[in-house]
Each structure stands twice: as structure tokens, then as C-alpha cells.
Design brief:
This protein is α+β, with helices and mostly antiparallel strands. The chain is built from eight helices and 19 strands. The strands form four sheets. Strands 1, 2, 3, 4, 5, 6, 7, 8, 9 and 10 form a ten-stranded antiparallel beta sheet that branches. It has a five-stranded parallel beta sheet with strand order 12-11-15-16-17. Strands 13-14 form a two-stranded antiparallel ribbon.
Length: 349
């Protein structure tokens, strides 16, 4: 019934074309409106809010029985997948393969919508416009209400396909098997009531370039995608780095130089953040990462030894590299333990 209603609504919108009632035009909210609350890397203008990152989020409040999220899908060849939750209810899965997704609610409200990006496929172009995948929000139509300001600690996660949540649900590298919201960054941020920036690019390392046209980590840093500058990390409380898994082809000296340059870049951008440099779960360049952190002698940059956090024989992986949802849960629990006391103290000090 819900699906039939959605199809009918979309069809009605297509039949109406550009001719909209005056009331509907007045209810059109542009992507850069303050009533829309974004988390993560979103390039925002009056015309579009664009993210290429699994785990990115959007929240807003509305009155009435429904709102319409509007998208530009003109260049999209592999639709992103999103979850939509209303008033804390169950997450509904949508492929962003249409220009209008209706979101309905019971009662007149006010209602709260949480839209989270489940996956942006890593092997399609998601760096250089016109993008072949990603979420391109062109506005919201409905009676939106002001946001309540929330002051949360700010957590930022940078990494590769593991941070992206690739193969978290099953053993195939597809959007259906990937879920950024089941990956440890989302789990950690939600447990500690932090705002979340989750940036994971498949195949990427500190030297290795990523899939989908994405540069290596240091060249991608500071950008949402090519030509779109990201919000600054200056006020980040915690930055978690999980890089090195895809740099296996490079020797120790070259890797150490690149990893150190990347940590220097993060520290320069976020002078006060606590930075956790994770040992890759497969152990790649573990000694190099530990050595770089020791050499930096910055008490706010820590090497996190993840040895024995996950097991290949206990269902913690789909395949041999990518954690399963169970594996991500285990990683999250370890990081929560590491962060909960210190973040609370730092944030309220």
C-alpha cells in the first residue's frame, strides 16, 4: 500500500510537470535553508546539497502529514541508497533514482525526519562532476519548522572502504551489501551523542588513489568532491583515521613519509582535536603507523592497536578485509570505551 501510494504520488507529480499550486511553491525550501541540518561532507548552495559519502546525514522537522524530498538524478547511473526515519520510527530504504521521494507521517506533527546515506557506490565516478553516483538534494517541499540548536561533540572519521561500510551486510561489493550506517563511525557517534562526519572512499590510502576517481587521502582532504570545499575540521573534538590497508604495495619509508604528512595535515586543520590513528584491521603498515605516531610526540595523537579486535573465524568479516555488521559493532564498542570518558571531560571542561 505504501509503495503504491508513493508511485501514485510520483506519477501525479510527473503529470503535473512544472505547474505547481501557489501554496506548494511557497512551501519549497532550498537546500541551503537553515531549517535543514546536515552532518558530514555536503557541498551546499541554493541550488543543491551534494554528498558522495555513505554515512552523511540530514535532519529536519515538519508539520502536516507529508513532505517531499527533491533530487537531481540527471547524471546518476548508479543510484545512492538512503534510509529515512520519521519520529524515531523504523528506517525505510530508498534508492535515489527519482526526482521526488514522498515522506509521510501519522498525525499533524511536528514530525522529525532523519535521512541517512546508506551507500554511495565506490566504483562509479563520485568525485568529478557530473557525478555518476551520490545524493543531489535540490530542495524539500513541505511545511518545515525551525531546528532546535544542539551542541554536540564533533567526531570525524577518515578512511577507506571499511569506513564507508562496504560489504558490511554481505560478501559482494554492491550497494545492496554496503551500509555506512552499520559501520563503526555511525555507531560510535550515535552512542556518544556526537555529530558525525564519516568519509570513507573505497580502495583509497595515503598513497593509493581511490575508486570512482577519488584522489589519495591527502589530496582528497578538505574537499567534498572536486571543486567543492568541505567544511573545516577546526572545531572537531575527535578525528579517527583508518588508513594503510590499501597501501600494501608501498615500502615502509615511502608510507611513513606519506602517513606523517597526512597526520600533519589533520593536525594543522584541527589544532585541538584528539586524533586516533588506528592500526588497520589486517595489520598493514602497523609498525609504520606506530612509529610515525611515536615520532610526532603529540600527546593528542594516539596509535590505537587493534590487534585481536576482530577474528576471521568468528563471523567478524565478510570476505577477508571488510568487517561484517558484527565486526563493525565490535570495533565501535572498543572505540566507545576509548572515547567516552575523555570526550565527555574535554567537551565540558
Amino acid at each position: 500500500m505504501r509503495r503504491a501510494g508513493l508511485i501514485a504520488a510520483v506519477t501525479a507529480g510527473l503529470v503535473m510537470g512544472a505547474v505547481q499550486p501557489v501554496a506548494a511553491a511557497e512551501d519549497f525550501v532550498r537546500p541551503n535553508d537553515r531549517r535543514l541540518g546536515y552532518e558530514g561532507h555536503w557541498g551546499r548552495t541554493a541550488e543543491a546539497a551534494v554528498t558522495v559519502n555513505s554515512g552523511a546525514r540530514l535532519g529536519f522537522r515538519f508539520a502536516g502529514h507529508s513532505v517531499h524530498a527533491l533530487f537531481d538524478v540527471s547524471s546518476i547511473t548508479v543510484p545512492a541508497q538512503i534510509y529515512v526515519s520519521v519520529d524515531g520510527g523504523p528506517k525505510q530504504l530508498y534508492a535515489v533514482d527519482r526526482e521526488d521521494i514522498e515522506i509521510t507521517a501519522a498525525g499533524r506533527g511536528p514530525h522529525r525526519v532523519e535521512l541517512s546515506v546508506k551507500d554511495v557506490f565506490s566504483r562509479a565516478n563520485r568525485w568529478t562532476p557530473p557525478l555518476e553516483t551520490g545524493v543531489v538534494l535540490t530542495g524539500v517541499r513541505g511545511r518545515l519548522l525551525p531546528q532546535h540548536p544542539v551542541h554536540s561533540p564533533r567526531f570525524v572519521f577518515y578512511g577507506d572502504s571499511i569506513t564507508q561500510g562496504v560489504m558490511a551486510l554481505c560478501e559482494v561489493n554492491t550497494s545492496d551489501c554496503a551500509d555506512g550506517t552499520a559501520a563503526y563511525p555511525t555507531l560510535v557517534a550515535d552512542a556518544l551523542h556526537a555529530s558525525l562526519t564519516q568519509v570513507g572512499f573505497g580502495r583509497q590510502g595515503v598513497i593509493q588513489t581511490g575508486n570512482g576517481g577519488v584522489p589519495a587521502a591527502s589530496d582528497a582532504y578538505g574537499w567534498n568532491y572536486a571543486g567543492s570545499k568541505a567544511d573545516s575540521d577546526r572545531h572537531a573534538d575527535v578525528i579517527v583515521v583508518n588508513q594503510g590497508t590499501n597501501d600494501i604495495a608501498w615500502g615502509s619509508a615511502e608510507f611513513r613519509a606519506a602517513y606523517r604528512a597526512y597526520l600533519d595535515q589533520l593536525r594543522s586543520a584541527a589544532p585541538h582535536a584528539r586524533i586516533l590513528a588506528l592500526r588497520p584491521f589486517n595489520g598493514s603498515h602497523a609498525e609504520d603507523i606506530a612509529a610515525v605516531v611515536a615520532q610526532l610526540a603529540d600527546r593528542r595523537i594516539e596509535f590505537v592497536d587493534t590487534t585481536d579486535w576482530l577474528s576471521l573465524t568468528d563471523g567478524d568479516f565478510n570476505g577477508t578485509v571488510h568487517p561484517s555488521a558484527q565486526g563493525h559493532r565490535k570495533v565501535a564498542d572498543r572505540l566507545i570505551t576509548l572515547l567516552e570518558g575523555a570526550v565527555s571531560h574535554d567537551h565540558h571542561a
